[in-house]
Amino acid sequence: MNQPQRFALVLAAGTLVVFLGAQDQDPVDLENHSECNFFSGDREKYSREARDRYWRGNLTEEVTKLRLVPAGTRTKQLQDQVSDSPIDIAVFGELQKRGIAPAEKTNDFEFARRVTLDLTGRVPSYDALIQFTSGQSPNKRAELVDRLLNSPEYVDKWTMYFGDLYRNTQNSDVTPRFNAGRNAFYRWIKASLEANKPYNVMATELIASKSRNSFEDGTANFLIGSDTNGGPNQDDYDQMAADVNAAFLGMGHVNCVLCHNGRGHLEELSLWGRNAKRSDAWGTASFFSRTSFAAIRPDPQTNPNLRYYALNDVGRTDYGLNTTTGNRPARQPIDGLGATAPPRYMFTGQRPNNGENYRDALARFVTNDFQFARATVNYMWAALMGRGLVEPLDQFDPARLDPDNPPSGTWALQPSHPALLNTLADQFRANNYDLKWLMRTIVNSETYQLSSRYAGEWNPTYESTFARKLVRRLMAEEIHDAMSTTSNILPTYNILEPSGPLYTNRDTRPVRFAMQLPETGNQPDGNGAARDFLNSFTRGNRLDDDRKSDGSAIQALSLMNDAFVMTRIRSSNTGGQQSLLNRFINMADTQLVNQLYLTVLSRYPSQAEADIAIATLRGTSGTTRTQRGENLLWSLYNKVDFIYNY
Length: 646
Description:
Shape: globular
Strand order of the largest sheet: 1-2
Helix content: 40-55%
Radius of gyration: 26 Å
Number of helices: 27
Strand content: under 5%
Largest sheet: 2 strands, antiparallel
Mean pLDDT: 88
Number of strands: 8
C-alpha cells in the first residue's frame, strides 16, 4: 500500500492524528521589564493569568471527539461519589456546589494505559494489560499503582522529569558540566528516586551541596547551572537564588524582584509581588555570597578544556551593594542597608545561626517553609492531572493562598482548590516528603480516575474544576519508547560515561529507551535521525527552550514517514528480537486485529474499526499479508489514541 492509501486507511479507521497548535497566551508587556525579559527569555513565565484560554479542556474535547470508541455507561453519579480521599472530598464538593456533573469513571483499559504512562512513561504490555483487566480483585487499581511505583520504569520516568526541572544538561548557560558532570547529576537524581529519598532531603543536598568533584558527586551540578556570564559575582548569587525559588518554592517572580521592587512592575501579576522589595531579595541571594566554584583540570596536558568543579564556601563577605555593571541594574545601599546585604530569608526574615554555613541555613529555611510543600504538591499534581492547582506552576502568589484569609478587592484566591492544596501539602510533610506517597494519593483518587469523555455540554470554565480527566500529548520520549516496546524493535544508543580517575577516556553505556537518556539536547545520537525524531515532538533543550506539548505538521509527517516509524512496522527478525508482526502475522484475522489494538492502543477495537482492519488484512491481489499487516500497524501508530494519554 502506498502512502496515499495508508492515509486513507487512517481516515477510514476513524481517527487521523490531530495536532493542535500552541494556544494563545497574552504575555506581559515587557517594555519596562527589560532585565526581566533578559532572564525569562521565551519561557512564558510572565503570561497574564487572567487571560487563560482554557486550552487543555479544548484539547480534551477535540481528542475525545476523534476517539470513536463508545463511552460506556456512567458508573457513578455525583451524589453517589463516596470517598474519604481529601482530593475527592474537595473536588466533588466543589462540583456539587457549582452544580457541575463529573465525567463517568474511566474503564479498566483506559485506566491501565493512563496510569502506566503517567507513572512510568511506558505503555502497558499486552500481558500486563490482560492480567489487569481480567483481574477480579476489588483493589486491583491500587495494586497496579503500587507495582508501577516500585518498578525501574518509574525511576526512569521521574529521573527525566526532575532532569527537566533542574535543567540538567552537558552545557549549561555559561559553565559546561561536560558529559561527566551531566551524567553524575543524572545518576544522583536516579539513585535518589530509587531509594525514595525524602524530597526535602533531595532539595537540601542540592541547595547545600558540599561536592568537591562535580564529576563524582552530582549535587554540585544544580548550582553550576546558575552560573552567569559577563557580570560581577552578585549576578551569580542572584541567579542561584532565582533558580532555588523557582524549582523548590514555585516563586518565579523572585527573579524579577532581584532586579527592582515589585511596585511598578508586578501589580497586575501578584498581590505579594507588588509590595516585594529588591532589598529583601538581596537577602536571599546573600546566602550564596560565600559560594564559589573552583575549576580543576584533571589532566591539563591531555585534555586542557576538561574540568570539574568543587564548591567552596569560604573567604568572601556578604552580598556587596557596590556594582554598576553586569546583567542586572546597579546595586547600591537602599532601605537602610549599608555596604552589604546580610543573608536574610525574604519570606520569614530568618537569619543563619552564628557560625552556620549560609547554604545549610537556606536549605533549612526553604524545606521548612510550608510553601516548599505546596509547590512540590502543585508540580506533581500538574504532572499527573494535566494542570496545576495553581497556574502557572512557578508563579505562586503568597498573598492569595489562604482560604481563611482571602484577599480583598478584585483579587481572588489563586488556587482552584485552596483548601485541598494546603491539605495535601500538610499531609505531604506528615508523610516525610515522600514523593511516592504523593503520587499514590493522587492517582488512587476518584478524581484522577474520571474519564476524559464528558457526557454533558462542556463549558471551558470547567477546566479548573477537574470534572473530567484532561488529556495530554505524550512526551517525545514516551512516543519513542511506546513504538519501540509495542513493535519489539528496540534501538541501542551509546551514552558517554566517565572512565578512570583522570576522566580523560570514555566508555559507553548502552541505552534502549529514550526515557533513560541523561538529557535532551543532542541526545541520543548527536545530530542524527533519532535526535531529530525526538526533537520534532518539542522536548526542548533544558536551557532556553522548555518542553512543550504543542503540535505541528512536522510531527504528523514524522509519524507518517520517519525512518524510526517505518522501521518499527516491519515484520523482521526471529527469537528475542522478533518483531511484533513477525510473531503474530499468521494469527486468524480477528485474533491478529485484537492483538495489535491491545498491544499498541491498550484497548479492543470498536466494531467499525475491526471491520476495516479485517478488510485491510484480507486486502486485494498484489500485496502480501505481511505488507497488509504492516499497513495496519502503521495506521495504529497514526491514530489519535497513540500519542495522547487520556
